[in-house]
């Protein structure tokens, strides 16, 4: 039965949701089954254009390609914009899959993400410095709220940024976000009290990050589909590079020129990165037009996607992933210092972790395009569970084990962060990506808000070793729950067969 024979969109949606019978013997199946081949009537195939002159099918500027609904598009998705068939999330749309303009968008997103995630990947340095200088009289839990609030604002405010991006594009959002990020660092250099640091670093910096985050990810989905995992991975290595460079830089600048000028130097770096981000981040797909001529994308947040259990499990999985991630990311420097390592030398652990993260964002993204995005993210989350409980938990005074853990965990966790938006994009139309990505990250924002304060509270339990053991076990269990969520989402989408590409 073809999509055109469906009596209406709802009926077509329900029928397409059924998986085709797997009657063939396993010996006759390919090594990896692409779930996009399971739908014959109207499945999407990206038109890949690798032109040597760098031209692509999209317009050169923010003038966006207008694509209205097609009758053949109805059966592939439900009314809330989420695809019933895994790889039929976006239909009848041609993606450049590269070209000069597509890769310039990736470069612009790379620069924007350094301003957001390069800074937060250096949080352990700031946490360690604040705890021994400006905020020496504050508890670990109180200091933890500074970093949790920053990411909470980045993700929570994004629930409104996403629909604005889908409707109006990226230019104004990126410009405003760049200004706020630079301003926050300049004002942080003057901050001496708890509330001043909270307002400058967390609130002002978080608002700037929220305006940059969704456009940086969303613009890539307008230019890539088949190669989206690779393109997103290339852009997200920025967080790892920032996490390598900034801690090393702060290791030398904090003792020599002090905290104020260290922050100002960071601010000037962000100002330089804002130039390519504003020049190159752009969109090419207009909001969908319904049959009566009205635009489908509104400026209001949309929670209807949670009626799809695949999307709901994916969003909840990100929540627990944030819980697991920010324990080592925030406390690994303090952990090393508490176990006999020099405080300044401990800053290098964060650089080791982020060095592993750089490879973890590119290589798994490349393999994810070949064997399935959900398949790869499930593998890397499993690796995070093993590394936290089998390496970090018994590391204690062993410097070599701690370095090995930092590099390997950076690789595994970096791939998680790079693949999360790609997995979400696999469930929805590219023209709805901003809305659904930002809604999922709004759920995750409550994980980031509570993760570091929970870690600080756990550190105050009993003896020092008891506190650190509690933090590590909490991180491992959080990753385990995230693993269960992503596995459930995959099973709901394509069943239990591990050889299906999804």
TrEMBL record:
Keywords: Membrane, Transmembrane, Transmembrane helix. Residues 15-35, 52-68 have a biased composition (Polar residues). One of its GO terms (cellular component) is membrane. Residues 310-502 form the Major facilitator superfamily (MFS) profile domain. It is a multi-pass membrane protein. It is found in: Membrane. Belongs to the major facilitator superfamily. Monocarboxylate porter (TC 2.A.1.13) family. This is Major facilitator superfamily domain-containing protein.
């Amino acid at each position: 039965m073809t999509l055109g024979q469906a009596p209406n969109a709802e009926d077509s949606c329900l029928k397409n949701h059924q998986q085709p019978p797997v009657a063939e013997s396993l010996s006759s199946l390919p090594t990896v089954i692409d779930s996009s081949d399971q739908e014959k009537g109207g499945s999407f195939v990206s038109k890949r254009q690798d032109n040597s002159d760098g031209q692509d099918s999209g317009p050169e500027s923010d003038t966006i390609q207008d694509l209205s609904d097609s009758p053949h598009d109805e059966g592939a998705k439900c009314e809330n914009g989420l695809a019933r068939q895994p790889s039929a999330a976006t239909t009848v749309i041609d993606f450049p899959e590269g070209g000069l303009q597509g890769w310039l968008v990736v470069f612009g997103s790379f620069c924007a993400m350094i301003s957001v995630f390069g800074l937060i990947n250096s949080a352990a340095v700031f946490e360690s410095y604040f705890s021994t200088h400006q905020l020496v009289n504050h508890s670990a839990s109180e200091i933890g709220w500074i970093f949790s609030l920053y990411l909470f604002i980045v993700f929570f405010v994004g629930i409104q940024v996403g629909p604005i991006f889908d409707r109006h594009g990226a230019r104004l959002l990126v410009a405003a976000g760049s200004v706020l990020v630079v301003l926050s660092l300049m004002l942080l250099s003057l901050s001496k009290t708890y509330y001043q640091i909270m307002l400058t670093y967390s609130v002002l910096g978080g608002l700037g990050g929220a305006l940059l985050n969704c456009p940086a990810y969303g613009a890539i989905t307008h230019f890539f589909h088949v190669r989206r995992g690779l393109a997103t991975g290339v852009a997200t290595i920025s967080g790892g590079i920032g996490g390598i460079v900034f801690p090393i830089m702060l290791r030398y600048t904090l003792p020599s020129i002090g905290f104020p000028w260290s922050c100002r130097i960071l601010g000037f770096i962000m100002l330089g990165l804002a130039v390519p981000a504003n020049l190159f981040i752009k969109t090419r797909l207009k909001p969908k037009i319904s049959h009566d001529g009205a635009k489908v994308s509104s400026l209001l947040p949309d929670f209807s996607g949670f009626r799809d259990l695949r999307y709901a499990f994916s969003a909840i999985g990100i929540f627990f992933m944030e819980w697991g991630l920010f324990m080592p990311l925030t406390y690994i420097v303090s952990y090393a210092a508490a176990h006999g390592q020099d405080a300044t030398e401990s800053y290098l652990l964060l650089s080791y972790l982020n060095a592993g993260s750089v490879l973890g964002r590119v290589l798994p993204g490349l393999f994810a395009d070949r064997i399935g995005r959900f398949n790869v993210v499930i593998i890397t989350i499993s690796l995070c569970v093993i590394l936290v409980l089998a390496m970090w938990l018994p590391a204690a005074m062993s410097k070599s084990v701690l370095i090995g853990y930092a590099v390997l965990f950076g690789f595994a966790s970096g791939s998680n962060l790079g693949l999360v938006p790609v997995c979400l994009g696999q469930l929805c139309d590219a023209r709805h990506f901003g809305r659904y990505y930002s809604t999922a990250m709004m759920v995750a924002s409550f994980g980031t808000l509570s993760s570091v304060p929970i870690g600080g509270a756990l550190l105050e339990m009993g003896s020092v070793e008891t506190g650190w053991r509690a933090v590590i076990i909490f991180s491992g269990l959080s990753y385990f729950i995230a693993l269960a969520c992503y596995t459930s989402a995959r099973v709901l989408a394509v069943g239990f067969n591990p050889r299906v590409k999804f």
